[in-house]
């Protein structure tokens, strides 16, 4: 069937989610064929996928859809390979072997939700596809073969005949051959195997049915003189003992039999090539003398038969023996002298290469991608594998399972108790540091990446000292300050950012500070950062360097450091170029040059095992745990509340200071109800400035870079988008709902909903139904009063309080729109607090319960603030924290 050609580049993009996959179109310029399939997926995604697998691959397949296509194709292939399918029809059963499940897991592409694809996820998908077939064949009046032929004339349903080859252990006739066929006893839903000779009795007098049964054998006999002779002699209908040469003939002709529609069962060592002679490269038996990707590894070529190593002399001895199947050390081995000579030639060439070259740890890891190219082996008939030596194998095992790493205790000055998985993260970071390798801590949002890094840095500070640079988005500076002061109060740090700089000298790197914290923007501008020799360079929200061509990415990568660490909740996105850029920062050269990596990834969709190779090379450097992991989720609260600190932009700072001056003058003369009104209106104005200058000024531009909260909103929602989750954003200001919604639409590339007091009840109900439905509606912006009660929005598992009501009861009610019965995920609650402003000060007072109880606060709302003296009010209103 010819490949469909489309005029424009476009995709139906697939996402893997816990509840199944979803499909959406990502290019608005769709041709008719793309629109048709998109509509079919909307109607019934499993039925659409099943029928898509009957078609040739389209060039608009995304990697994830290509993978789903391969799963559905496998289902069709396994159905058509069931010899009893015509007999059992809709009662057919379908199961995958452990090897088949393993291969499917290995082929999962780098796409959103790939971490959810496990045996259970695949089993559910296969079950849904099988249900589509069962429903359709039940109502189909023709044969099963005709059903499949109607969708694709090239699909052949296997016949009912089986060939069996087994070992007997006898000397003269070491093998036995038998033909069987499937039949279904009366009143049984399951078919059974019976010797082919029984067919002569079952179809006695009905030559037409007998010929139909053995039609596949007749077809094979046209190409195989061996099968032709067995038919003519009648031996085919009874079990027979055969010689080694006859068994070898059968094994070599398997493709002929299977193409004819005969199922063949032969010894596993032939199918898996366990007993074929192959070449392996053993790497890393001894620990290298130095650390890092440049560490020199020992490596040597080896000849093998299955798991057993051959010496060169033993291989040469095999060349003296005859050809065909030969028993060697109790195992059957196929001897092909021409191929053996080729293997020996390659072995000698690789051995000479070993003597002339050094192999680094980085080279060894790159060999996982293409060992043939690395060793200049271009004969595809020779099987070549990589064999991990003792040290290399133990190192990789520790990467995969941090619980095997020798424990390093946290230092006494670290004032926190790590959860079990956080403890393992801490041990893993120490191990990576010991090896001198770059590391990506990629735990899910809310699992505490920051506290793990602080535990690691405090250990480094106490044990070794040194100089650390942390680069992050400006909105996270406040979060890190508070976490450091809380968990490692003895750690001396310095903020290299204009918002914290009291003088120009404040931006000079302090010799006494162990940790320097700066932003991505400052990393571009400050030349002194590149001149300093850093022991550790850490990136928070490391997806900021995913584009290798930007000035920011180039600047960050040019900073010298002995070890590099990346923190990100979204380490791998659909664009594999992003992955290359991350690893180019962490371990330069591991994935080759950008051009080499692009060439490798070109055919990944059609070679699923390429994803397995890529995953194998990057896996040691990424530690990722998920909230959906049962071993993690059992150790987490169902609702995780986080104060997300934001900073004021220059424009916000100017307006805030101006308002402080105005209020100070008015407070001197104001009394009674007038003073109370002044205080409350001032609080409202400060909140507006913290939200966005345009809200305070009554303008409609709402440029994102004019507001720290908008920047913070972007960082959180980009992660939500990549995980294809959903978010509720609450604000107490109705006029903020539309600007926030418009900004979120630009982040998600999709429309969401806005709900406020003016939303009609009927429309409100429609919004709730659609938001909780299967179609992806990524966000809903709600005014706190209108959306804080009476709604069930459990499709969301992120809640953002954009501005604070300062009433725990009201905020909890709003949060409970998502955190309620029916919610299946942990709920992440992000409470925006603008650093150094009234928001931060009042938030601290609430948390510390200074001067008032929770009950008074819940009843009084913001009225209690009016009771403070003028001096106390000005202290609350004033800018602090270096703003």
From TrEMBL:
GO MF annotation list: ATP binding; helicase activity; hydrolase activity
* Alphabetized SMART domains for the sequence: DEXDc, HELICc
User: Is the Transit peptide keyword given for this protein?
Assistant: no
Query: Which InterPro entries does this entry report, sorted A to Z?
Result: DUF3670, Helicase_ATP-bd, Helicase_C-like, P-loop_NTPase, SNF2-like_sf, SNF2/RAD54-like_C, SNF2_N
SUPFAM superfamilies in the record: P-loop containing nucleoside triphosphate hydrolases (SSF52540)
Q: Which domain of life is it from?
A: Bacteria
Mind telling me what this protein is named?
DEAD/DEAH box helicase
